[in-house]
Amino acid sequence: MNERERGKMLRRVFPEQYYAAFLSRDLRSDGRALDRTVQTSLRRKWSLSRADSSGDGDGVHQSLGSVLLKAGNTMMLALVSASGVAAGVASCECVLDMGPICSPYVLRGSSHALDAAVVARQVSEMLCSTVDLEQLVIIKDVLAWSVRVDVHVINYDGNLLDATGLAALAALQRARLPELTPLHAPHNDDDTPIPHPPGIGQPLMRASAERQVRIPLRSKARIMPCSFVVIGDKLLMDPTGEEERVSDAALCVQVDETGALCKVSKYGGAVVSDEMLQECISAACGEVNGWVKLLDEDDA
Amino acid sequence: MIIDAHVAAVLVSHICCARSLASGDGRIKTKLGASEYSMGKYGALIVDAADATVEQDSEAAEAIVPVASPSLFVRAGVLSEASGSAYVELGNTQVFCAVHGPRAAGSGGSGQGFGSGSMSGQPSSQRGIVTCDVRSLGEGMVDNAGALAVVVSSILSAVVRLEQYPKSRIDVYVLMVNDSGSAFAATVNAACLALCDAGVAMRDLVSACSMGVTRVRPDPASESAMEVDKCDDQDDHDGVLAVVANPQNSRPGSRKTQRMTLMDFAIMPNLGRVVYAHLRGQVEFNHVEKASEKAMAQARLVAAILSSYMREREKSALDAMSAGTA
């Protein structure tokens, strides 16, 4: 049995030893350094648009923009949809769908469903800080946009949070809302519009089929998570699936575009020292330029 | 991929009768019948040349025009975590398929999502089961997903050598990213390719084709295949009767193909067997034979593509491995 096959067997049967052998040389099994992220690419050519038949209704349903993200082997598809919501409370949420297609470890009843829910919640919070919710209100107290990002995990090889956050942000940047013009807006004699009393079931706005607007994002407010994992006494950034499974603790640091720290989260696991935490934060801040460039490149 | 030796021999002879022209960047362009097929390291793409000749059927009351099939793109091995995977694009219909297994039965539920089915019941000590779970993005296609999952799992149960996997289950997960018609054909082709990629023992490849029988008003302005959306019901006598291979909805969201008369076929090309045949709608007796012939021919073409693509892939993988160890 040659070296390669022996290595494969070790990886299967004793993964801790396999990774320990790499980490003792400050390397990872795919050749990365400990503080490097995987190669990430975004494909924006996916435009899934399903126009609903109605154009005059109270709500407009469309799939407005989509992005396929490949971070290393982790592949996910993020779709944006928006609908008009009565009572004028704008919102933005992220729904994460992690089905058994993505990994042999994900089956019904496995703990991954809980992980997915936690990650979706975290990404929703990130998006709510990033999206300018006030500008999503169409008519105050009457009608507002409710934006939803559905992220479907197609292949899961580690680092769910980072990939979901990036995919959701990229999809939001890509998505276009239809421009709305009010229907029968009556005017006073001096041409000031009378506030339209909302009747039940009465169409309020017409959605333009041609003109579209971007989803308003607060400037310089995009938040990106950066996940780490601790194996033994080594800190690894952007873990793969196998590294996650042999890890002792997981950490996540969220920074925004300006390098300001937004959130640090550590859910259980082994104890981590202060220095390690500082390392994480500075490493996350160092990554900012990289992901801003990725999000902004060919952003038409 | 594990296919019997005699089947492999048949495949080789089938491919040898195609004329192939190698182009500069390593892509192989082949002509199989009237279609052009090119294959590179990114996948295999087949673009069907528009077959515009009107075939005069002396027994039928009228001529039937065959309409070209939309382009097909296949690629295997796209998902690293699955045992085998495939991505298929049939026109605008995009499908991911992942195969997990064979794995121990009882290691989890039968999948989640709207559509899941298994025609084989529970795995026994004599044979395993194949389950299929179809997930489609978006609310519109929910009613199709369950039926499609049951159909695909029944087809795969016939094709996979389940007696070689006792007490095991092979889970096939399908994610339909975009469905603009002919989801059945895309799904079955993807499942076949994914099973090959996973190395699951099968009796033969399985390939599928949908054939729509409808009336078409040829658009004098466009030279390419006629728009399915301009088709009307069969009873309208103004248009020309056409058989449309793998009909697509030209506009996203239109449901034209769901109202067409559709014949779905899944065949095992080398054993020469039909695994699945389904007709929805009405077809005159005279036209059934013509339509099903075209469907089988198309399915055989797809199977030839799949098999030559897999062989090329295996060959390049072996070359890479021997170069690596050398």
From TrEMBL, chain A:
UniProt keywords, alphabetically: Cytoplasm, Exosome, Nucleus, RNA-binding, rRNA processing
Localization annotation: Cytoplasm; Nucleus, Nucleolus
Occurrences of domain Exoribonuclease phosphorolytic (ranges): 60-178, 225-285
Top-rank taxon: Eukaryota
GO-annotated cellular components: cytoplasmic exosome (RNase complex); nuclear exosome (RNase complex); nucleolus
Gene3D superfamilies on file: GHMP Kinase, N-terminal domain
Membrane-crossing segments per the record: none
Gene Ontology BP, a term: U4 snRNA 3'-end processing
Family: Belongs to the RNase PH family.
Protein name in UniProt: Ribosomal RNA-processing protein 43
Originating organism: Porphyridium purpureum (Red alga)
Organism lineage: Eukaryota, Rhodophyta, Bangiophyceae, Porphyridiales, Porphyridiaceae
Automatic annotation (TrEMBL), chain B:
Signal sequence range: none
Coarse class of the protein's main subcellular location: cytoplasm
Any GO CC annotation of this UniProt entry: cytoplasmic exosome (RNase complex)
A biological process term (GO) from this entry: rRNA processing
All copies of domain Exoribonuclease phosphorolytic, residue ranges: 72-200
InterPro entries according to UniProt: ExoRNase_PH_dom1, ExoRNase_PH_dom2_sf, PNPase/RNase_PH_dom_sf, Ribosomal_Su5_D2-typ_SF, RNase_PH
Presence of the UniProt keyword RNA-binding in the record: yes
Record localization: Cytoplasm; Nucleus
PANTHER family, A to Z: EXOSOME COMPLEX COMPONENT, EXOSOME COMPLEX COMPONENT MTR3
Family stated for the protein in its record: Belongs to the RNase PH family.
UniProt protein name: Exosome complex component MTR3
Pfam families, per the entry: RNase_PH (PF01138)
Regions that span the bilayer: none
GO MF annotations, alphabetized: RNA binding
Keywords tagged on the record: Cytoplasm, Exosome, Nucleus, RNA-binding, rRNA processing
Lineage: Eukaryota, Rhodophyta, Bangiophyceae, Porphyridiales, Porphyridiaceae
